[in-house]
Amino acid sequence: MSARLPTGGRLLDRSQPLDFTFDGKRLHGYAGDTLASALLGQGQMLLGRSFKYHQPRGLVASGAEEPNALVGLGEGAFFEPNQRATAAELHAGLTATSQNHWPSLEHDVGAVNSALTRFLPAGFYYKTFLWPRSFWKHVYEPFIRQSAGLGKPPQEADGSTYEHFHVHVDLVIVGGGISGLAAALTAGREGREVLLIEQTAHWGGRAVVDAPQIDGQSAEDWVKSALQELETMANVRMRTRTMASGLYDHGYLMAYERVSDHAPATPGPRHRLWRIRAEETRLATGALERPLSFAGNDVPGVMLASAVRDYLVNWAISPGDRTVVVTNNDDAYRTALALYRAGLAVPVIVDARPQVTGALPQAARDAGIRVEPGRAIVKVDGKKRVTGVEIGLQLGEGGAMEHIACDAVAMSGGWSPAVHLWSHCGGKLTWDEAQALFRPDASRPPRGDKGQPIASVTGTANGHLGTAAALADAGLELDVSEPAEEPMAPVWIMPQGAGPALKRKMFLDYQNDVKVSDVELAAREGYESVEHAKRYTTLGMATDQGKLSNINGLAVLSGALNAAIPATGTTTFRPPYTPISMGSIAGAARGPLFQPVRRTPIHGWHEANGATWEPVGQWRRPYAYLKGAEDRHTAVTREVQAVRNSVGLLDASTLGKIVVKGPDAGRFLDMIYTGRPSSIAVGKCRYGLICNENGFLVDDGVVARLAEDTWLCHTTTGGAEHIHAHMEDWLQCEWWDWQVYTANVTEEWAQVAVAGPKARAVLESLGGMDVSKAALPFMTWAEGELGGLPARVFRISFSGELSYEIAVPADRGMELWEALLQAGAAHGVTPYGTEAMHVLRAEKGFIMIGEETDGTIIPQDLNLGWAIAKKKEDYLGKRAQERPHMADPKRWKLVGLEADGGAVLPEGAYIMAPGENANGQRHTQGRVTSTYYSPTFGRGIAMALLIHGPDRMGEMVEVTDGQGGAITARVCDPVLYDREGERLDG
Amino acid sequence: MSTRRYSAFALAREALRDHLGWQRAWAKASPKPRYDVIIVGAGGHGLATAYYLGKNFGIRNVAVLEKGWLGGGNTGRNTTIIRSNYLQDPSAAIYEKSRALYETLSQELNYNVMFSPRGVMMLAQTEHEVRGYKRTAHANSIQGVTTEFISPERVKELVPIIELKGPRYPVLGALWQARGGTARHDAVAWGYARACSDMGMDIIQNCEVTGIRSEGGQVTVVETSKGEIGCGKLGLVVAGHSGVLAQKAGFRLPIESLALQALVSEPIKPCMDVVVMANTVHGYMSQSDKGEMVIGGGTDAFNNYTQRGSFHHIEETVRALVETFPMISRLKMLRQWGGIVDMTGDRSPIISKTPVDGIFVNCGWGTGGFKAIPGSGWAMAELMAKGHSPLSAAFGMERFREGRFIDESVAAGVAH
Ligand SMILES: Cc1cc2nc3c(=O)[nH]c(=O)nc-3n(C[C@H](O)[C@H](O)[C@H](O)COP(=O)(O)OP(=O)(O)OC[C@H]3O[C@@H](n4cnc5c(N)ncnc54)[C@H](O)[C@@H]3O)c2cc1C
Prior knowledge:
heterodimer; A: alpha+beta; B: 2 domains; 8-stranded mixed sheet; 29% helix
């Protein structure tokens, strides 16, 4: 059983005991513990169940690479599934729950009997569940989904907050081991702006555990003095608990700081996403130890040798009473020696190498530990806990020569540099035959826009496994004393000649239950590409992203294919290095801050006066104003009637307003619009259409000429930004030599439409400029003073009524609105919303971008040919509109529709035609584009597009009702209200 | 005796002999001097084309050439949404044909592609979107595609984890296709490859096409990294690299290549049974059979070939989905990746003859062609075998010259 030793533990603060719970059990640990070390300290080795077979699993590692020990942490709005116990720092009151089992971790009915696992090899689901067909969705799939899936979903909205940080530095160093510290010292002393980040809560990495002598002192002391020096440097910033998650184009580095996971009561954000732009990025990310593949290497109690050492040195944990060490290299002997020094039994060191002669093995022998060269573990005994190992010849086929009782196994298959970040953005690797590892190929780095390298690698991550070499690589030539190591042997599976029965129990990917036999099956079935093998077996696709399994799996695949490892190649490394919270990615942009709501100067008044909102672009506009118990429909009816009979007010501030100015402005606008804005006289307005290069109508609005060289272009609310961008695109990319300036002044003006027969009376009672018909006829504008406010008044109408749009500087907008309310009170002035605006314009037959248009409509379809300057040599969209299909007389054209009995036609309905096409679809001949109840006419009205429409007035057509049936409607003129335009002109 | 056909019985038998008897899913092949038909690109569309050439037209002297590993392009990188609730007639026809073929594909290929008709929902979050989806529902009702516009209450019933009253964009309803869903992307490629191989076709991986030669306006030979290969007809089905290959054949294509990204969360127990797309905020999500939340959004804005993409797009997508499904905030992103998608001017595909006799192209599926694999292969095979296919007729590349767009992006329509 694992246990806490009475003394030791360099990270423990035994003066601060902490209580926590695991599956409801109250347990104890100390400040400085991780959840993993605390659980081990309480004898809890069984920590989870695997994904596919629900096999019992214990801790394998001590850091980010841990595949098994995943737990749910926290409760309610603070619950998070799938947290690695090795990366969770213990705090008082921590609640952890184990995952993926039912009813309990100890007794999981989902556990697949190991005799049955042979029926569920890699990819078994591709080969079965084929019949009966409906069973996949209703029976098999729900079963698979339920048994997979690991942790429970959070039930509540997230109670924490998150933030983003942007930093710019000369040098960012990733990794706070001795290489990272050395690189920081070197750069810091040169005065460079440095950011040094480390994913764990502690500095020093492996060296402080492995304890070489550096510069005449212990590694621990060297790290302390390095930190002291760095802390005095104002140009060096250091952050622990900060993991570099991904390297992106141009060297953009993302880092994930877990600000308060270790102390949840702290106010402030839980996580912080650092977005780092550095002149130089140095990766000192160290290396990860590899497991060995032997039968039963997944039984709880089998751990990485380095992890055993970490638990022992850092947290005073004994993994068991008797620990067998199994290895293909010298490094694992450090674990044996550490155990020995702690007074723990190491019955044997099983070494796959035929000869073992190095200094570390000698030290072990000197300590009286039995060393067995040329041997393998052929099998681990035990189910929920190791009870012993069978030992045999590494070159054999699995015959057991000796049984050794033990309750823990420390394994080492050698080391792999953590090259993930290097690879994210295209850095290439080279295979180091001697050390059997992939390391960064400095000649093929990830590159920036000018071909320059955007990252470099330092220390162990660069393949320098020895302390002296790693420090030298980071720029510090120091005296190091540590035992020399003999070469490792590239042994991947034990024993070499193992047959299928053993290979079926050799796990490569612990979490996803991928075994050596699975990878070999993939190769046998032709899934030979490393990507195919990965996808077919799911190797490396678990939450650890294959940190422990990828290279081992690759070696097994290469073996099965009889190919060299580098020829087989690795799978792609993708960000993030370890998973990062969605909350941190979203940052502060949540709830009301998700997307800014743009507000007109009158927004607050709307809110206070019953507005029911409609999102339009980034604005929110009143759909209607509900009075008392009114519903939307009643309110809209009232608002429409008010405009038709008296006067209404519309907040039109959201309409786009783009000023276009300069000697070439007229010529430019003649290209942008289908008409000829250059011929508008100063003081006049004209309706204009904008098409894209494909000829399709994308925006419309009134253009006013403000001065000889200045125009004001009104756009739709949703169109302001992209029409401005469209203009700039053409100016900057195509007509860069034209002298034109554009400015989007939408928010500089508040604009109110005063519409209805009493509009002029209201303006006149405000007092000020002359707004009479003679002074300000339809489609003109004037500047002056109105009710004491500086104003531009446009005689334009989108309602079909006598109407003025009054623009005042934004900060006077509310004054204008209130003055109008007051001046209009005598006439029952009524604010109206977007829906009334829609109904009014539809009664008048005015088209609306986004309703009558959908990106496939040209002005000619909408009978707007009059707004095209035919003689103009060119405008955007002209050439496109001359293409055969655009000139096709069969294009659907704008008409009105009246349903039988005055009903309101359904939105989006199609007009059917007889017969079917070659694909068996019912023919259509048109569609409804707008449909409303018209209070003015007391019935439904609609606009539609119809083949030969304008020639078919009075004809009856069949419109879909959406339920498979049809509604009959009569084709009519789309202009229903005031066809002569007398009211407009009044 | 080795095992070829898949079944529960075969699996049990193989289990008893340690699975040593399974045959290769597809045979190893090296190029013959000449084939009647060569398909370039062993993505889903290329493989499906080859399959239906053999199955529907008996054309089996076929090679599929793949520069990397089969299924390694967008077919193996996508988020596997399958639906046919398209607006325009030609789109609805080919996507519905495709969806219908998916229903029985596992049985037909004897390979479980895990088609899961769990339902696809497209949220309407503005009045404008409500009208747009109602229109699609009307179009679908006469196109033979079963969809309906559903209420917010029904949305909540189907997706309990959704936030209907998002402070920014409330959910006003949704377009719902109950028989839409997902499938296992790799399995689609592998299943077709296995079936093609069974018909005697050669699937040649690590074989990049580097040149295309023709004589008298008729294609004759493709040059590859494994030597020259003669052909009677040639199908180019290479998605993001279509422009490059067309250039080698001597013509141009109206295609732009952009990075499209996706990401998955760590796996959790089932909490969302349907696919949800939220177009106003730009994100969509489903839960895979492994339990991962599979998430995607829009393309990067700039052209590129790197299969990576920018972080700020991931951010935009995640932000949108955290807003829509607040509980995912405490899940973690496990992995992100990108693919290069082939975009046309009207966002609809090209299935077409070309200026060179004997060369056909199938591309432009952009961000949404996984769902189309069976239908597109069906139509492309018919076009290559007979010179005409009703399903592909509208997708000829001459449409751009004629202005006859098949525009599915009602995006240009703006809300007032
Ligand atoms: C992130 C992402 C998410 C997506 N989500 C969805 C979704 O949810 N639903 C949906 O329906 N669609 C989706 N798609 C789109 C879908 O993936 C594609 O439309 C579809 O897979 C394209 O298939 P394909 O066979 O045409 O192309 P690919 O699968 O890309 O195949 C083309 C093949 O051609 C090969 N090739 C290229 N050049 C050469 C050459 N010179 N010689 C030989 N071979 C060559 C390539 O290596 C590749 O294997 C998504 C795409 C991406 C990137």
